[in-house]
Amino acid sequence: MRTRTVFGLGVVFLLTLLIAVGCNDATVESPTTNGAGDEADTAALTLIEDNCQSCHTLDQAFRPRAEGQWPQVVDRMIGYSPGLLDDQEREAVIAYLQENRSN
Ligand code: HEC
Questions:
Q1: 58 Cβ contact partners less than 8 Å away, ≥ 6 residues apart
Q2: From the CB of 94, is ligand 1 less than 6 Å away?
Q3: 32: number of Cβ within 10 Å
Q4: I want to staple 103 with a disulfide (CB 3.0 to 4.6 A). Which of 10, 27, 64, 72 is the partner?
Q5: Using CA atoms, how far apart are residues 102 and 97, in angstroms rounded to an integer?
Q6: How far is ligand 1, taken at its centre, from the CA of residue 94, in Å?
Q7: What would the pLDDT profile of 77-91 be if each residue is shown by its tens digit?
């Protein structure tokens, strides 16, 4: 009898723990930033993955620089490969790099 009760309590405890952990996960995953920004970031990241690793690695393309330098760097890359990005893509890539890869 006694063992059963202890076992039962153990199961209840474990279930509570699982539910608590589950809820915690949900809280962590809920987005805190606005969705539009995230989508722009994903688009810029795709542009960079598609256009910036033909001549060097992505690691190099992502090497952090002072925020104000990114337009120059991206323009230099476009100079190496005219037509690499159109105006809109250039803006998106620069904005992404300035926000995420500046030191
Ligand atoms: C046509 C070839 C080419 C393409 C495409 C290209 N790059 Fe480059 N990149 C280079 C060369 C060559 C260098 C080294 C000389 C220099 O820094 O100007 C370089 C250097 C860099 C550096 C400096 C890395 C360091 O070691 O500090 C960064 C940052 C960079 N590229 C970012 C980019 C980004 C972002 C893109 C995409 C928009 C891109 N590159 C696309 C040729 C290219």
A1: 48, 49, 52
A2: no
A3: 5
A4: 64
A5: 7
A6: 13
A7: 999 999 999 999 999
pLDDT tens, residue by residue, 38-80: 899 999 999 999 999 999 999 999 999 998 999 999 999 999 9
Q: How far apart are CA 57 and CA 66, in angstroms?
A: 20
pLDDT in tens, 13-28: 554 544 454 544 444 4
Q: How far is the CA of 39 from the centre of ligand 1 (A)?
A: 24
Output the six-digit token pair for 60: 């190099």
What is the widest separation between alpha-carbon atoms in the chain? 81
**What's the CA gap between 8 and 100, in Å, rounded?**
51
72 CB within 6 A, ligand 1: no
**Residue 30: band (very low, low, confident or very high) from pLDDT cuts 50, 70, 90:** very low
Domains defined along the chain, listed by start = 37-100 (1.10.760.10)
